[in-house]
Design brief:
Elements: E1 2-4, H1 7-10, H2 45-54, H3 58-72, H4 94-101, H5 105-115, E2 123-125, E3 141-146, E4 149-154, H6 159-172, H7 179-187, H8 191-204, H9 208-215, H10 221-226
C-alpha cells in the first residue's frame, strides 16, 4: 500500500480550506486542491535531493508525484493520503497507477522507486493491508475511517523503540542542551528519516561552522530538528578540513602571516666571490 509521507502536515486541508493543523475538522468530501509550498524562483531542499537522485528524469518523477497527490486527495476525510484505485476502494498497485496516470508501467515503477528512496521519503510503501487513510506522522495516534466506523490505530513504532532512537541521536548530537525539547521534536519525525538525520549530524559535525569557537554556533538540537536542518546542503568547502585551504595562484592560502623582520635578498657582488 502506497501512502504519501506526512500527508497531514504537508498537504491536507481543513473544512475552511486552510492548512490542516490536526486530524480534527477536516474537509468532509474529496479535496478540490492539495497544498504545495511555493518556493518561487529558488529550489527547495527536497527538490535538490530529487535532482540528485533522478537527475535528468527529475521533472518526470515530479510530475508523476503531483498526480499521485491528486489521487491521494480524492477520498473522504480520514481516507486521504493513500493511493487508491477509486474512492473508498482498495489500495492501488503499480499497474493501477500506470492505468490511472496513462503512462507506462516502467515510468511509474521508476518514479515510485525514487519517491520511496530514504533520501527523499515523499512516498512510503506500507506493508499493512488495512486500506484506511494515514493522516499523521509515525509516533502519533491517527484517526482513520474504515467504512462507517471511526477507529483509533497506533503507529507501528513503539514508544520504547522511539526513545531508543532518540538516545542514538542525542549521543551523536554535539550540543547537550534542552534535551526534553529535542525529545519532543524527535517524536514528530518518521522512523524512515532517522538514519538520514544521524548521517546528516555526522556530516554537520565536520563543518567549519560547527567546529569553530569550540562549537559555540551549533544550534540546539530541537531547533535543528524543527527546522529540518538535516536537509541543508553541505558543500565540500564547508567542511573544516577544506576550510581556508583554497590556495591562490602564488601557492599561498591567504592565512600566512608575513615575518616582520624579513628582508629582501641583496645581489651578490664581485661575480659571486666574497669580498
Amino acid at each position: 500500500m502506497y501512502v504519501i509521507h506526512e500527508w497531514l502536515e504537508r498537504y491536507e486541508v481543513n473544512s475552511k480550506g486552510h492548512a490542516a493543523t490536526s486530524d480534527k475538522d477536516l474537509r468532509a468530501g474529496p479535496l478540490k486542491y492539495v497544498r504545495l509550498k511555493v518556493h518561487g524562483h529558488s529550489q527547495s531542499n527536497g527538490y535538490r535531493r530529487l535532482l540528485g537522485i533522478a537527475q535528468g528524469r527529475a521533472m518526470e518523477v515530479f510530475g508523476i508525484f503531483c498526480k499521485l497527490l491528486e489521487i491521494a486527495g480524492d477520498s473522504g476525510a480520514g481516507q486521504r493520503g493513500v493511493l487508491r484505485v477509486e474512492r473508498d476502494g482498495s489500495p492501488a498497485n503499480i499497474d493501477d497507477l500506470a492505468f490511472l496516470l496513462s503512462v507506462s508501467k516502467s515510468k511509474v515503477e521508476y518514479a515510485v522507486k525514487v519517491l520511496c528512496d530514504k533520501r527523499l521519503c515523499w512516498l512510503a510503501n506500507s506493508e499493512s493491508s488495512n486500506p484506511a487513510g494515514i493522516l499523521g506522522s509515525p509516533g502519533q495516534y491517527n484517526t482513520i475511517q474504515d467504512n462507517s466506523n471511526q477507529v483509533k490505530v497506533k503507529a507501528k513504532q513503539s514508544k520504547s523503540m522511539d526513545l531508543e532512537g532518540f538516545g542514538g541521536f542525542w549521543a551523536e548530537y554535539p550540543k547537550k542542551k534542552s534535551k526534553q525539547d529535542a525529545r519532543v521534536a524527535w517524536k514528530k519525525i518518521g522512523p524512515e528519516l532517522k538514519e538520514v538525520i544521524l548521517e546528516a549530524v555526522r556530516k554537520h559535525k565536520q563543518t567549519h561552522d560547527w567546529v569553530k569557537e569550540n562549537g559555540q554556533f551549533v544550534p540546539n538540537a530541537a531547533t535543528w530538528l524543527n527546522g529540518r536542518r538535516w536537509e541543508d546542503e553541505i558543500l565540500d568547502t564547508d567542511l573544516e578540513v577544506n576550510h581556508g585551504n583554497q590556495r591562490k595562484a602564488d601557492g599561498t592560502t591567504g592565512d600566512e602571516i608575513p615575518y616582520a623582520g624579513a628582508k629582501k635578498s641583496l645581489p651578490v657582488l664581485g661575480g659571486g666571490q666574497g669580498l
